[in-house]
Amino acid sequence: MNAPTTPPAGGGTSGERGAWGWFAPSDGEGPKRPARQAPTGSGAESADESPEPPPPPGCRWRPLAYERGPYEPQDHPGQYGLQDHPGQHGLQDHPGQEGLQTHTSQHGQQDHPGQYAQPGHPHQGEQREHQRAPEPPDGPPHSPPGGRPAARPQGGWEAPAGPACEAPDRRPASPATPSPDTLLIRRTLAEIEPIADKVTSYFYALLFLQAPGLRALFPAAMDTQRDRLFKALLTAARHADDTATLSAYLSDLGRSHRKYGTEAAHYPAVGESLIGALSRHATATWCEETQAAWVRAYTAISQIMIDAAAEDERTSPAWWHAEIVSHESRTQDVAVVTVRPDQPYPFVAGQYAAVETPWWPRVWRNYSFSCAPRDDGLLSFHIKAVPAGWVSRALVHRAGLGDVIRLGPPNGSMTVDHTTDNGMLCLGGGTGIAPIKALVEDVARHGRSRPVEVFYGARHDDDLYDIDTMLRLQKAHAWLSVRPVVSHGPTLGLSGQLPQVIRKYGPWTAFDAFLSGPPGMIRSGVDTLVGIGIPSHRIRHDSIDDLTASATS
Ligand SMILES: NC(=O)C1=CN([C@@H]2O[C@H](COP(=O)(O)OP(=O)(O)OC[C@H]3O[C@@H](n4cnc5c(N)ncnc54)[C@H](O)[C@@H]3O)[C@@H](O)[C@H]2O)C=CC1
User: Where does the record place the Globin domain (predicted)?
Assistant: First the structure.
């Protein structure tokens, strides 16, 4: 599985596929290589400090077909590989917000997803066709900006002869002082931020040009998944100094990429494309030193991901098949879908999984489990069909008994801490009630009673599709209180939006809080809760970024 990362003995030629110049992640088995030096000058003289074995003649990927899938897509062979699945250690890249987010809330910015679909997103139409690899949006990838001849000797990109770097402060990093590499990386990021879309497109164009085989790992239409990998890489690089959190985040990312068919051998091409896209677009700040910083960062990032994937492979499948055993329509747009995985599926209440349907190969969407682990091993999801949501519409309107979906591994950290008896304040907006129900079941199973206060929000009374279940649970457990809250229209319950309504109750300062619902609700919910005295480390929710990114799921 070692990646063919070194240039051929005689030196690779520009653009030669597989002659990766910089990135040689190990397969997690052997010792790690030190980061390569970035090319200097023309790059021709750049060399690894340690001798390397001659590389294979090209970068080859074995075909990435489902190996045990009953529904191999016909016209999109293989399966997609490179998507971000922010896990519970969530790194968020929010404008104006620096620092890694952990699984608990920092004012509404945390990691990963729940399910995620909101109507009215500008994603239009179902599955637009993008079957061929995209063209680089602004010129051939090997031409650096300004028409300078592109040289990519030894398989690496030459640093454009841009302005010299301002020498960064070389003192060691501290929590308050970013390392010199991180400073350089952040300069690049600041420069590309206004043109992030363009850089993202360019990155993928380069990737598919250099390694056409990787195209088959992505969905036919590069929808919201498109920029996740790129974004995750940038975010990780931005936070390269925070090794503990970064390592947890990247390990999750590496593990979750297994279901896409990602292999260690894919990482060099990704790294080459990353550097290629950045060097082309960050022309004001790119220089040799910056390039070297990015090479070091990517080498470290990819190695963590590869190691985590290799470790995970020893104990866990890359995905599970799961047969639909119950499909219950609750409203016109909401269904409760129950599945039986083909092998034991270990998870914790409050987590979520990526789901792929047979109808949209390689398009994965995250859905929270609506139940705690059950003795019979079944899993349930609440799915709301949204206008342009390929997966959600298929699951609500097309799926039926006997259909087989695929599940990625469990993820997420909106889970109950059973070491404390703190009260739990739970806000579930719309289908966001699903993981809240799972948390309630988890507390019930655990046997130690603690106050659990659930506020269940919906637009209209009719949208409270799971209120009967929640009220049944309330009846069964004296420690549980469930309050329906309706934001639009008349109701016998409480009126208003969830965050407003909880202000009228409390005090909540001794409670842990759990938020699940639309991104707007999470944001204002976190603000409200922090405002009324719940420390942010006791507020849990899934990633706002991914809730937003997956708005058309
Ligand atoms: N783990 C999670 O966080 C999960 C999240 N979801 C997400 O929950 C959402 C459910 O959508 P719908 O059922 O259409 O819910 P919805 O849009 O009808 O909202 C439900 C309730 O949430 C509150 N709310 C919504 N927007 C708000 C805002 N901007 N500020 C304050 N409160 C607000 C209101 O009380 C509203 O009645 C989806 O975006 C889905 O992705 C779903 C399942 C799990």
Answer: 175-310
Of 309, 278, 273, residue with least CA distance to 291: 278
User: Ligand 1 in contact with 396 (CB < 6 A)?
Assistant: no
Q: Are 240 and 297 a contacting pair, CB within 8 Å?
A: yes
CB 393 within 8 Å of CB 334: no
Q: From the alpha carbon of 496, which atom of ligand 1 is closest?
A: 35
CA-closest candidate to residue 259, choices 363, 345, 400, 163 = 363
Regarding the beta carbon of 483 and ligand 1, being less than 6 Å apart is answered no
Read off the pTM: 0.71
457 CB near ligand 1 (under 6 Å): yes
Per-residue pLDDT of the chain (553 residues; tens, 9 = 90+): 222 222 222 222 222 233 344 454 444 443 333 333 333 332 222 222 232 322 222 222 222 222 222 222 222 222 222 333 333 333 333 322 322 333 344 333 333 322 222 333 323 233 222 222 333 333 333 333 333 333 333 333 444 444 556 655 555 555 568 899 999 999 999 999 999 889 999 999 999 999 999 988 888 776 666 667 778 888 888 787 888 878 888 998 899 899 999 999 999 999 999 999 999 999 999 999 999 999 999 999 999 999 999 999 999 999 999 999 999 999 999 999 999 999 999 999 999 999 999 999 989 999 999 999 999 999 999 999 999 899 999 999 999 999 999 999 999 999 999 999 999 999 999 999 999 999 999 999 998 789 999 999 999 999 999 999 999 999 999 999 999 999 998 888 899 999 999 999 989 999 999 999 999 999 999 999 999 999 999 999 998 766 555 544 5
Q: How far is the CA of 76 from the centre of ligand 1 (A)?
A: 33
Q: Which CATH superfamily is domain 145-162+176-313 in?
A: Globins (1.10.490.10)
CA 467 to ligand 1 center in whole angstroms = 15
Q: Which residue has the tokens 């075909």?
A: 63
Angle at 313 between CA 239 and CA 82, to 5 degrees: 50
Nearest residue (by CA) to ligand 1, atom 41, is 116
Please give the CATH topology (third level) of the domain spanning 320-407. Elongation Factor Tu (Ef-tu); domain 3 (2.40.30)
Domain locations in the chain?
Answer: 145-162+176-313, 320-407, 423-549
Maximum CA extent, the chain = 79
For residue 444, give both structure tokens.
């019930």
Complete edge-to-edge strand list for the sheet that includes strand 511-516 = 494-495, 480-486, 452-458, 423-429, 511-516, 539-541
| Coil vs helix vs strand at 153 | helix
Cβ of 118 closer than 6 Å to ligand 1, yes or no, is yes
Cα separation of 265 and 23, whole Å? 10
Question: Which H, E and C letters describe 131-151, residue by residue?
Answer: CCCCCCCCCCCCCCHHHCCCC
Name the fold adopted by 423-549: Rossmann fold (3.40.50)
Ligand 1: distance of its center to the CA of 357 in Å?
A: 23
Using alpha carbons, select from 302, 523, 348 the residue that is nearest to residue 445. Answer: 348
Of 342, 341, 326, residue with least CA distance to 402? 326
